Amino acid sequence: MAIVFDPTNKTFYLKANDTTYVMQIVRSGYLAHVYWGKAVRAVRGAEAFPRLDRAFSPSPDPSDRTFSLDTLPQEYPAYGNTDFRAPAYQVQLENGSTVTDLRYKTHRIYKGKPRLNGLPATYVEHEQEAETLEIVLLDALIGLEVTLQYTAYKKWNVITRAAHFENKGGERLKLLRALSMSVDFPTADYDWIHLPGAWGRERWIERLPLLTGVQAAESRRGASSHQQNPFIALAAKNVDEHQGEVYGFSLVYSGNFLAQVEVDQFRTARVSMGINPFDFTWLLEPGESFQTPEVVMVYSDQGLNGMSQTYHELYRTRLARGAFRDRERPILINNWEATYFDFNEEKIMNIARTAAELGIELFVLDDGWFGERDDDRRSLGDWVVNRRKLPNGLNGLVKQVNELGLQFGLWIEPEMVSPNSELYRKHPDWCLHVPNRPRSEGRNQLVLDYSRQDVCDYMIETISNVLASAPITYVKWDMNRHMTEIGSAALPPERQRETSHRYMLGLYRVMDEITARFPHILFESCSGGGGRFDPGILYYMPQTWTSDNTDAVSRLKIQYGTSLVYPVSAMGAHVSAVPNHQVGRVTSLKTRGHVAMSGNFGYELDITKLTETEKQIIKEQVAFYKDVRRLVQFGTFYRLLSPFEGNEAAWMFVSEDQSEALVAYFRVLAEANAPLSHLRLKGLDPNQDYEIEGLGVYGGDELMYAGVAVPHRLGDFISMMWRLKAVQR
To answer: Could you say which DSSP state residue 293 is in?
Structure first.
């Protein structure tokens, strides 16, 4: 069994593939953390937390000064009864106090993995894939039950965690803090890794040593955000891409989050993650409950690549859902950077005709097709076709595009409303706002109040009507501002600080309903590019627009950092025009192609203005990608050279049977009289010979241990892509 309870020493053993997670019930019902790491047969819990009389660490048991919650490693700690570290939860009683005391009540072990009510989460297709442990903790004084939910996957080094609160007492309780998990590590001798950024510079890798105090990544923006990502990792000091112990934490949530590490006076490290307590409360009436989102915890003793490959496979096959989970993604052309708002049917059809000639498979019509949307100052919310631009309507346009042999896709932004719109004039209270305060705008728009059921119902029907009006096979779902003046006209005063989480629950409901109604549509999420690239959204939409910054050199870091957690099948990557619209850089069509072909491939430029030579290059790129896209989108991904550590970047994709691979190499700036480079590959069969097109035949062992010489090229922004095929013997 994957989960075992030893009643003799009251110890829980969770085994997930090659990792073990151990907890023990100690004293009068406290749940202590014992071990998490490489698989072991047994751990003696008493030695995990030796009892010492620590000065200024009081004890809940006056008769024993050696026992204190301030020094006990715990599974779901509280604050106020001898533990001074950051708590996992906090509850306010009607008398204003916030002291609680959860003790073990019971537990249950069963096969499979349950759904989380109203929330996205990883799943199983068969109950044999995982086992679940539920540990019920009770504060008997107030009748609060907290069920800690653990699932151990058998195939992967993955343990998921969440918590469920239920008020079984007679008075109202207010949650002030309800994190999804907490883990106490016995040492702080780690580096912490997170993915900070900004618009156009998302998910850069930052690695720092743990210091005494608190280090945190968080969002207070109403979205997971460009600025931070709901992921952190602890890495041993010797960890690189391919060796050493790493612990990853990824929150399946798309709103305000907190991920923090606290290093205490004894150099232990407490990792906690969940909904951000900032500006959050949740009222629990007697009989009511609250479910936290899921944290996916991954252990790797094979470095960062080992951790990433676990996340990739799990998220691609047991988080993403629907028909496109395992299906190759089409090569698309998006008109946004070609036309912005300035287009008509003729201009669109000219782009589509050229796309068909080049072998592109999908045309995507971006912003500007509805209402009076000639710029970003109007009409969001008015999801009616602009007949001045498209006189034959969506259906007429789609029919013409389909006749060229192209599929048709559409941009929408269902979560926003323009103050200058018919929807806003009719329903001014349908946006997030607080009474008597100005309504701040971002990109000339306000955020619709998805905490309201009537707003969600309206958008489900409105967007469904649009998608049912024509044979649409792709949707780009955008969200272009963060939340301010967070309040809802539909909630009473005591529930106003529930608004941002209720918004996420509403959004998930809307996404779930629309994607279920249109299973034949490939949905791609977007938030000004990569501002909501998180596991919560991947549950509903299997790919995300990685960044609005389409510059090839910038994308090296963006895509490399994104790959720390997210599979390549989730990354939208396009070739755009030069000079690049975001940074002004000029790179070759070849380099732009190689970077974009390292994700879900497409184009975002006016292809009608290209030279015949450029069109021929695109034809060749399209044909090549069609031949390798299954390998790129679903192969095993290896990072080889980091753009954060030098002037080069490299990565590769390997087929499951190791018979084929694709290697991408990039050099940013040229260097006079530069040293030669040898690139060591990964993931090949050492006993197999491989032919590299244009370079010759090499043994797999030679390619991995000695490496392959990188051909010398002059110039900046150089790229190479090599395809490897096993030589038939």
So the answer is: P
Based on the number of CB atoms within 10 Å of its own CB, is 496 exposed (0-12), middle (13-18) or buried (19 or more)? middle
Quickly state the pLDDT bin for 51 (edges 50, 70, 90). confident
Percent of the chain scored above 90 by pLDDT?
Answer: 93
Give the CA distances from residue 426 to residues 67, 164, 384, 411, 417, in Å, rounded to whole numbers and listed in that order.
Answer: 63, 39, 15, 24, 12
Q: At what angle do helices 589-596 and 552-562 cross, to 10 degrees?
A: 10
What pairs with residue 725 in β-bridges? 660, 691
pLDDT, mean of residues 576-600: 97
Q: Which tokens belong to 404?
A: 């060229």
**Lowest-confidence region among 44-58, 367-381, 505-519, 676-690:** 44-58
User: Is 46 a residue whose pLDDT tops 70?
Assistant: no
Per-residue confidence band for 62, with pLDDT thresholds at 50, 70 and 90: confident
Q: Please provide residue 516's backbone torsions phi and psi, each rounded to the nearest 5 degrees.
A: -70, -35
Mean pLDDT of 289-309: 98
Coil, strand or helix at 640:
strand
User: What's the number of CA atoms in the CB half-sphere (13 Å) around residue 116?
Assistant: 31
Q: What residues contact residue 306 under an 8 Å CB cut-off, 6+ apart?
A: 242, 246, 300
pLDDT of residue 48: 64
What is d(CA 162, CA 148) in angstroms, rounded to the nearest whole number?
A: 6
Question: What are the beta bridge partners of residue 417?
Answer: 446
Residues 131, 2: contact at Cβ < 8 Å? yes
Helices (H), 569-656: 589-596, 612-634
Cα 448 to Cα 483: distance, rounded to the nearest angstrom: 10
| Pairwise CA distance, residues 132 & 198, whole Å | 38
**Which residue type, as a one-letter code, is found at position 151?**
T
Query: Which tokens belong to 247?
Result: 């612990």
What is the C-alpha separation between 489 and 669, in angstroms, rounded?
55
3-class secondary-structure state, position 284: strand
**Catalytic pick from 101, 264, 449, 478?**
478
C-alpha 368/C-alpha 336 separation (Å) is 9
Interacting residues of 712 by C-beta distance below 8 A, sequence separation 6+? 676
The more confidently predicted of residues 52 and 17 is: 17
Choosing from 184, 264, 548, 551, the catalytic residue is 548
CA distances from 21 to 2, 15, 159, 250 (A): 10, 6, 8, 17
3-class DSSP state for residue 579?
A: coil
What is the structure's pLDDT at 47? 61
Report phi then psi at 349, rounded to 5: -70, -30
DSSP-H helix ranges across 103-255: none
Mean pLDDT of 29-40: 95
| Cα–Cα distance for residue pair 125/112, rounded to 1 Å | 9
The owner of tokens 């010489």 is 709
Q: What pLDDT sits at residue 1?
A: 67
Tokens of 12: 């829980």
Q: Catalytic: 548?
A: yes
| Dist. CA 284–CA 632, nearest whole Å | 47
Q: How confident is the model at residue 131, as a pLDDT? A: 98
Q: Is 457 designated active site?
A: no
CB atoms inside a 10 Å sphere around CB 260:
18
Strands 600-604 and 571-576, how do they pair? parallel
* Rounded distance between C-alpha atoms, residue 713 and residue 623, angstroms: 25
Q: Which helix (H) or strand (E) holds 394?
A: helix 393-403
Q: What is the mean pLDDT of the chain?
A: 96
User: What's the rounded Cα separation, in Å, for the pair 434 and 474?
Assistant: 36
As a whole number, mean pLDDT of residues 538-563 equals 98
Count other Cβ atoms within 10 Å, centred on residue 170.
10
Contact 57, 72 (CB under 8 A): no
* Residue type (1 letter), 20: T
Cα(728)–Cα(204) distance, integer angstroms: 41
The predicted pLDDT at position 42 comes to 84
Mean pLDDT over 545-561 rounds to 97
